[in-house]
Amino acid sequence: MPKKIKKKIEKNNPLSRQSFLHSLGVVAYIIIVAFVMMHGDSWFGNMNNILGPIAFLMLFTLSAAIVGLLVFGRPVYLFLNGQKKEALSFMFHTLAFLFVEAIIIFVILISYNFLVS
């Protein structure tokens, strides 16, 4: 992260830095899961039995829990400790950072597809 942006985030709101890191954690986790799903056939073989859907649903449930904790865990903790304004700020900052990161990923994807074709 460029120093100028980092200083601005830390200066404006100390929770912004933490929410930015949480959003990066979500993106990193999504990249890991996407990598596993892309290579699942070669790693685990073709699953024509009950184990394939079970594995998918277990991964789906685990993903919901991990991403839920990264996005909502700290805001709930802050809210329960009486820091309601900080909790809402943290949650909305995290969601805003995720939105920006999603836009960046889609722009990269569109640019890549445009260059390849």
From TrEMBL:
Query: Which key words tag this protein in UniProt?
Result: Membrane, Transmembrane, Transmembrane helix
Q: Transmembrane residues, as ranges?
A: 20-38, 50-73, 94-115
**Protein name in the entry:** Uncharacterized protein
Naturally occurring in which organism (per UniProt): Candidatus Kerfeldbacteria bacterium CG08_land_8_20_14_0_20_43_14
Query: Could you read off the lineage of the organism from its UniProt record?
Result: Bacteria, Candidatus Kerfeldiibacteriota
